[in-house]
């Protein structure tokens, strides 16, 4: 009995220390979100009166509505709404296409190998390490040549191209663990490259698809540099619009509207994490232990 | 009718040769086992028959039809893999009918075929399950079902039992053999397990280093091996390879072996090439040819009897094997069932010299005739 008690005391202390540090970090991460949230539902006067941490006296959704539909973005009082849709129109096709291409690439690079497949993969892997800034000017030139400068389609193309390196890497590492016999069995059954892909490989790829979609979605949604460089006033994504919202003041800094706007910009990625986050961790671990 | 014919087939990967001049011909309904140690090229040969690997040299015909340039799906074959290779997201039923679906077989026909195969393999109750919910033996059955359902001309098995535990392996072995008897299909079966080869095959082909060492019926392979490799590879415990001095006398050939301090001279009734007079040869004797008790109906003079000292005994239940030292090598002999002999005991052993094989100690070539 005594031994057990002694053991549990140390264990208790360790556990307490663990929980304390976890709570501390959770607090540090959640604090800014709390500040954003409470201040986005306060009238501006309450913020100006100080007490950033206080809960609002008068709860109001006015800042959210304003940020969404009437706030001044640059010269137009449109709110963030049109830009939110710009972002959706950019992110959905870019994520879909880059994920699908990554899956096809990963599949071909692991199970339909050809002469030089290793070199091709290394080159794609290299794309992952190219800093965004280096691609800016050549990319701008290319978009100009193809007549895509300043359009949402242009952004879709840029993000898809930039994403393929990552998505290929993800899918390749996942498919490497698939036994070759599976392809052989399907070939004997009479299936070809694409039928094997769509009927056998893709249905077994849910975890890695989720990982890739989360990764691509958050990266593309949160991108500012490509958006500000390649888009125009009517094709700016959310991130650029948010910046413009904060910078286009008509005298008074409407902090509550800014907070609300920032929150709106963060909502889609938050939702993705909340609903698919557990697959993210599972999927990242997935390749390491052969199932 | 010919089930499968392989003519002068070779395989090269770049400049590396893995198979050369393979010639095999089997009849329809034959059960051919390709057996050999790992890396002997047997799986490559199977993949070439299946069309999963290119044929570098020679021709392969299945049921009389040249298949060199046909896709796997056009060769009228079905294959069972070591890892089962079941499609993980499809149900058992989906796995079995996938090949039919691709061949655009109408749904009603497909369902009937699946039901027939499920009945044959007793997996009817599993049809709605996913492969991950099955045990190893059940997966093996499903993999066979997938092969059987299309009713192909030729079945290919790539070490299908290697992933099963020992007990299940013996069960499935019997089952595959029964299935072969029942369906009468031509089968090519790859394994490294010589017991599987002996028990199931109607024809065995022993491969080593990309060459066929010997092909024939299990009986021929076991009792009349063409070289020391085949002799040593087939059989468990393996054939004893004893160092012996050959001498030609007026009464025929004599072989001298050393056991401890003494030299034992055995009279060898068969003939050897004259050039081996006064040379060292390898005397190959299976454990059941060195026995404590010989069958009652055996001719007395077929055996040479001498006393040997045992180093070790190994009771396996049905049989008891003894180990002794002959010429510096361990030789296994078969003792009386339930023998109580122990280390250091002297026993009278009967050597069935007439059944022994003699090999060249260098090349391993068979010498006696």
Plain-language structure description:
The complex is a heterodimer of chains A (291) and B (369). Chain A folds into 2 domains: 24-60, no CATH class; 81-284, MetI-like fold. Chain A is built from 13 helices and no strands. Chain A has helices at 2-40, 44-48, 62-70, 81-111, 117-128, 132-145, 152-175, 180-189, 193-201, 206-222, 225-230, 238-247, 255-286. In chain A, helix 4 (81-111) crosses helix 10 and helix 10 (206-222) runs antiparallel to helix 13 (255-286). Mean pLDDT of chain A is 88; it is low at 286-291. With 369 residues, chain B is an alpha+beta fold. Chain B has helices at 42-50, 92-102, 107-121, 136-148, 166-183, 194-200, 218-223, 228-233; strands at residues 2-13, 16-27, 31-35, 57-62, 65-66, 77-80, 154-158, 186-191, 203-208, 211-216, 240-249, 252-259, 262-268, 280-285, 290-291, 304-309, 312-315, 320-326, 329-335, 346-351, 357-359. The mean pLDDT of chain B is 91. Classes of the chains: A mainly alpha (291), B alpha+beta (369). The A-B interface holds A 179, 181-182, 184-191, 195, 199-200, 203-204 and B 47, 50-52, 71-73, 77-79, 81-90, 98-99, 102-103, 146, 158.
